[in-house]
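Hey,

Quick one before I head out. I ran the complex with ascorbic acid overnight. Inputs first:
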Amino acid sequence: QFAKVEDAIKYRQSSFFVMQQNFGRVAGMAAGKIPFDAKLAADSAAVADFVAKLPWAGFGPGMDKGESKAKPEIWSNKTKFDDYANKMQTEMAKLNVAAKSGNLDSIKAAVNSTGGTCKSCHDDFKNK
Ligand code: ASC
């Protein structure tokens, strides 16, 4: 899958970055920090929803070697990590549906629940 562990790290970090840029845009609109643009929100949420499927391939066996903020518990407690990863994807998919609806209140609710899944995983599995 990856020629070297650095590629796996770059792959997962890059996909998280693309996801965060798109999620963050929608979250900024939900928070009133960016003017609400329904089309841009829907497009951004759709990208975030798709890209949310990508990082996990970069957390395979042996990909705990190399320099990153990933805690070893990702590999020693893979079931819990996968559970968090799945919850995030479920909530991101709901955000995509909410953004397509164009309803800012549903977008706000979905941003909050999705953001909660980001945070709980970072708290347990990401070094500062
Ligand atoms: C983001 C980002 C996170 C989450 C988190 C939500 O945009 O980079 O880690 O949202 O801040 O609580």
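Residues 20, 23-24, 27, 115, 118-119, 122 surround ascorbic acid (CB under 6 Å).

Talk tomorrow,
K.
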